Amino acid sequence: MIKSEAIVAVPNMVFKTRVRDESIGGDNPYRWQDVSTDELFGGKKILLFSLPGAFTPTCSTFQLPDYEKMYNEFIEAGVDDVYCISVNDAFVMNAWGKQQGIEKVKMIPDGSGHFTRRMGMLVNKDNLGFGMRSWRYAAIFDSGDVLQFFPEPGRDDNHPNDPYMISKPQHMIKEVKNVFK
After folding, report:
1. pLDDT band at 7 (very low <50, low <70, confident <90, very high)
2. What are the extents of the domains in the chain?
3. Alpha-carbon dihedral 118, 125, 47, 180, rounded to 10 degrees
4. Average pLDDT over residues 129-138
5. DSSP 8-state class, residue 169
6. Cβ atoms of residues 47 and 79 within 8 Å
7. Which of 69, 72, 128, 181 lies most in the core, judged by the most C-beta atoms within 10 Å?
8. Which position among 47, 54, 59, 87 bears the catalytic label?
9. 111 vs 6 pLDDT, higher one
10. Residue ranges of the alpha helices (H) in the chain?
11. Architecture of 14-179 per CATH?
12. What percent of the chain has pLDDT over 90?
């Protein structure tokens, strides 16, 4: 665990999201909606996890589905919500969440990587053909303040590996219980 000295609060941002709106009708009843970090984090205890990309093997096979399965455990341990963020646009995040059957974890699109950059976690993954993406991490927030920060080891551009140890939900449930006991 790292108590981040550099990142002490959630970056002040606005996310470009797509939300279902039945008044639109048709096959694609979604509209744009700006959502601020104040709305997402203000006055709430949040567990955020970030990953390199939607539809990628580790993220789709383990990380996102396991956070969804353990969502109620996190709520019982004291968080108000669990957010998944990735440097993907709203269309990709919505499609991935739908494909994965996600109903509880909130999918947050960081299409341009501005949030990820301000968190100090934007890395170049050109070695995999991804471009700029997030390094895998998890963080615990209370009213927008970073209480604990858990980046995977080895953060570096074009890292040959994709560590997935400390940001696992099985590890983070223990940390959340310690923080909010």
Report:
1. low
2. 14-179
3. -90
4. 94
5. H
6. yes
7. 128
8. 59
9. 111
10. 37-41, 57-58, 64-76, 90-100, 114-118, 169-179
11. 3-Layer(aba) Sandwich (3.40)
12. 88
Q: Is 84 part of the annotated catalytic residue set?
A: no
- Looking at the chain, which runs of residues are DSSP E strands? 14-20, 30-36, 45-51, 81-86, 106-109, 122-124, 132-134, 137-142, 145-151
| 161-168 long-range contacts, CB within 8 A, separation 24+ | 162/52, 162/58, 162/136, 163/136, 164/58, 164/62, 164/63, 164/136, 166/1, 166/138, 167/49, 167/50, 167/51, 167/63, 167/136, 167/137, 167/138, 168/62, 168/63, 168/66
Q: What's the token pair of residue 10?
A: 């959630």
- Residue 76 is encoded by which pair of tokens? 């019982």
